[in-house]
């Protein structure tokens, strides 16, 4: 036998991890768990079994929470919250630090329990999940410490309902609990029904850390308990990670409630390999992308796109590598691929793959354990981009693959998805990587790497992968709100007619779509009367067709506008201000005629200032480079959201419009603005200012008409990326509900007034941009 033969045939012996401590802990708890409410475990109630998916054995009996349990948990969190906030950042930091230390001291117990409960290889829970959990609490101890000085004008939201999935049970808990606690919120968390044990061990750690009662509450149970949390009136924010389908339901269920919402949902992330990539590294990366955690990872690199010239060699080397993957007992330290979380998930994966009648299916021919939920690593090649398996999340160890010829085609294929969570790009040409990364529709891009995470770097998606970021300053801000007094907004009705005398000659405004003034599709207009009841002119009544036309124009302009420089966009905004200032008196008179009083000049002056503010910001809202603990950088790039539809403020017909148009334009978005309903003529006069200011057609589109009638077509339009409402009509619930289909970002006023004279740039900068984190490791 040659040395080569020995190397080729050498098998690893088993290296099992001892699970005795974890079992002892379960026995100590009596193998039956209640909930953790107000600092203590409740008596176990009617429940369900928690099983080890690798063996099928029962680990413990958990309690299905009732409405009373959820009420008690919310009440405990409510009661604890003001005191927890008043403790201040330093004292909260000390608690978070204590939690981090305890997590470290019990790291092996957590890792083993996680593996027993979830089926993931102990190597992963020990070396990835639990260290990242600790890092998250350490990092957020720091955030708590800095919160008072760095976010002095922000308050916590209150009580946060947090619903997490089963793929990274403790890590998802850490992602949710640490920033919430750091910022002075209290939480009611529901772990996934398959994997609640490490959350309950965490509850034990909270007790050991002396965390004040009620700050962390954990209730167990299935989706019905999740629904109770979502619907509970005592909850101020829902943070959810899980399937897109449930995310959509939660969006609809919270619509109009005023609750904050962040959703981290599914993905079908592309893994793009160019022909100059280091093939061996790219194949090793792929093992981490799709066989890490059995592929049950929201950002798994589950769609391989490989450049045609190297496809054959790449796939054959990949298959050879797949054959080397060791599948089996997750507690064995030599195992690469463990168990699927539950028979239900195993069945879902099996059915999806078995139903695939196209392409070529390559399954690793390994001896799977006789018991438990195991699925062999699988590669499917030769599928059409539109094939179900190329589009839908399988959430298992199954990779689908296709080829591309040029970088442009790679980008097109990569973006051919309703999701937008993550992407990997493999090439030795950094120029190509940094050209492609910004073009990919994804919240995270890894260059020559995959599945890198850190507490300092934002994580989250675009499109149907959800909204909001977790980690870093953006993640932290999502648990806070601005500190200001709340004033209710009352609906402003159009002025009634008193006499029919028109002012001057007939002035019939049109709509402004694609850089042109166009007649409304329906052919209807309405009279606009002055405060004193004189006829000022007519404003068109836009309908759903006009919304469609405006969105089409905005979409057409969006790509080109996003590519312009901030310098150019600043110049155009200054030019708009210049042209508006020439007609300042005319606009002031118009506003006074519509609204009555003599505030018009002040509003025009504030509008000019606002345009200057946005011209100033156009080239200054910089990204960041995060100091992540790898050799490399994680760059947080600010990208435009896309097409933003807005219902403008009624009370400030010019300032309200300029205040939303300015940031949208400055950050590279195009917009569809529905002008103030009672006072539309300042907006229609504004068309001429836009026409003379070099604004490219389609970047700004303005419609007039009924806010209530236009809200539905705008919010349900699949090609709109974000919808905002500052209208005095009550649109908030409708917009949030209708936006659920494609999970567009929303920003609604929930019936609260905004002081348009106050500068609030940060809120608009954040709403008009999306963070993309691009990880670029370097060195060896
Ligand atoms: P899921 O989205 O149903 O469950 C996630 C969490 O939400 C669990 O705690 C569950 O109890 C809770 N939940 C379920 N229905 C709810 C409702 N109506 N209201 C509030 N909470 C609710 O995910 P599931 O069933 O565990 O997995 C199904 C598929 O979802 C997977 O095959 C995978 O495609 C995807 N998924 C994606 C995850 C991600 O990280 N993006 C994580 C887990 C699943």
Automatic annotation (TrEMBL):
Matching SUPFAM superfamilies: ALDH-like (SSF53720)
Record domain Aldehyde dehydrogenase: where: 50-482, 531-749
Active-site residues, Swiss-Prot/TrEMBL: 264
GO MF assignments: oxidoreductase activity, acting on the aldehyde or oxo group of donors, NAD or NADP as acceptor
Keywords on record: Oxidoreductase
Pfam family name, one: Aldedh
Top-level taxon in the UniProt lineage: Bacteria
Similarity comment text for this entry: Belongs to the aldehyde dehydrogenase family.
Official protein name in the record: Aldehyde dehydrogenase family protein
Organism whose genome encodes this protein: Marimonas arenosa
Taxon lineage: Bacteria, Pseudomonadati, Pseudomonadota, Alphaproteobacteria, Rhodobacterales
């Amino acid at each position: 036998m040659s040395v080569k033969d020995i190397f080729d045939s050498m098998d690893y012996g088993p290296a099992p991890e001892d699970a005795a401590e974890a079992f002892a802990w379960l026995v100590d708890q009596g193998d039956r768990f209640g909930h953790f409410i107000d600092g203590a475990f409740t008596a176990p109630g009617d429940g369900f079994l928690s099983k080890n998916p690798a063996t099928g054995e029962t680990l413990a009996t958990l309690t299905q929470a009732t409405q009373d349990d959820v009420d008690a948990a919310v009440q405990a969190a409510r009661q604890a919250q003001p005191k927890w906030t008043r403790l201040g950042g330093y004292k909260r930091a000390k608690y978070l630090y204590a939690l981090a230390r305890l997590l470290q001291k019990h790291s092996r117990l957590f890792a083993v329990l996680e593996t027993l409960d979830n089926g993931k290889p102990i190597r992963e829970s020990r070396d990835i999940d639990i260290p990242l959990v600790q890092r998250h609490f350490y990092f957020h101890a720091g955030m708590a410490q800095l919160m008072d000085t760095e976010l002095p004008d922000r308050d916590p939201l209150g009580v946060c309902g947090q619903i997490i999935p089963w793929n990274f049970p403790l890590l998802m808990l850490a992602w949710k609990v640490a920033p919430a606690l750091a910022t002075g919120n209290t939480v009611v968390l529901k772990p996934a029904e398959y994997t609640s044990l490490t959350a309950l061990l965490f509850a034990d750690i909270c007790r050991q850390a002396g965390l004040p009662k009620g700050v962390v509450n954990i209730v167990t149970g299935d989706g019905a308990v999740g629904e109770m949390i979502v619907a509970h009136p005592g909850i101020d924010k829902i943070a959810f990670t899980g399937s897109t389908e449930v995310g959509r339901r939660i969006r609809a269920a919270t619509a109009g409630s005023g609750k904050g919402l962040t959703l981290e949902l599914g993905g079908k992330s592309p893994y793009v390999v160019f022909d100059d990539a280091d093939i061996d590294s790219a194949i090793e990366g792929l093992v981490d992308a799709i066989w890490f955690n059995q592929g049950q990872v929201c950002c798994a690199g589950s769609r391989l796109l490989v450049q045609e010239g190297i496809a054959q060699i790449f796939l054959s080397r990949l298959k050879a590598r797949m054959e080397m993957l060791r599948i089996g007992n997750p507690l064995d330290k030599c195992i690469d691929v463990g168990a699927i979380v539950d028979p239900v998930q195993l069945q879902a994966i099996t059915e999806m793959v078995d139903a695939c009648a196209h392409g070529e299916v390559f399954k690793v021919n390994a001896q799977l354990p006789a018991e438990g939920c195991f699925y062999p690593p699988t590669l499917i090649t030769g599928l059409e981009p539109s094939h179900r398996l190329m589009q839908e999340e399988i959430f298992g160890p199954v990779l689908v693959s296709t080829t591309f010829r040029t970088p442009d085609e790679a980008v097109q294929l990569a973006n051919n998805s309703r999701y937008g969570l993550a992407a990997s790009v493999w090439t030795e040409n950094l120029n190509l990587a940094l050209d492609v990364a910004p073009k990919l529709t994804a919240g995270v891009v890894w260059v020559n790497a995959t599945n890198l995470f850190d507490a300092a770097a934002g994580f989250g998606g675009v499109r149907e992968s959800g909204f909001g970021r977790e980690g870093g300053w953006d993640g932290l801000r999502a648990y806070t709100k601005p500190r200001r007094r709340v004033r209710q907004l009352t609906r402003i009705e159009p002025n009634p007619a008193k006499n029919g005398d028109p002012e001057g000659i007939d002035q019939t405004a049109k709509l402004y779509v694609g850089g042109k003034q166009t007649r409304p599709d329906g052919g209807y207009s309405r009279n606009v009367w002055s405060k004193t009841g004189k006829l000022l002119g007519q404003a068109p009544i836009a309908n759903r067709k006009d919304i469609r036309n405006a969105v089409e124009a905005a979409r057409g302009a969006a790509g080109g506008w996003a590519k312009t420089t901030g310098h150019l966009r600043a110049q155009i905004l200054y030019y708009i201000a210049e042209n508006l200032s020439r007609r300042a008196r005319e606009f002031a008179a118009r506003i006074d005629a519509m609204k009555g009083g003599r505030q018009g000049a002040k509003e025009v002056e504030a509008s000019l200032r606002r345009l200057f503010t946005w011209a100033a910001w156009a080239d200054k809202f910089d990204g960041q480079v995060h100091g992540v603990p790898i050799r490399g950088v994680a760059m947080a790039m600010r990208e435009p959201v896309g097409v933003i539809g807005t219902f403008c403020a009624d009370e400030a017909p010019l300032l309200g419009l300029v205040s939303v148009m300015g940031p949208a334009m400055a950050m590279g978005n195009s917009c569809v603005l529905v002008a103030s309903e009672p006072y539309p003529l300042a907006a229609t006069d504004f068309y001429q200012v836009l026409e003379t200011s070099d604004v490219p057609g389609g970047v700004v589109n303005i419609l007039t008409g009924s806010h209530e009638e236009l809200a539905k077509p705008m919010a349900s339009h699949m090609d709109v990326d974000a919808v905002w409402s500052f209208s005095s009509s009550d649109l908030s619930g409708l917009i949030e509900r209708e936006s659920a289909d494609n999970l567009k970002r929303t920003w609604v006023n929930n019936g609260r007034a905004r002081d348009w004279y106050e500068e609030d740039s940060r809120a608009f900068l954040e709403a008009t941009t999306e963070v993309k984190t691009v990880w670029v490791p370097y060195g060896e």
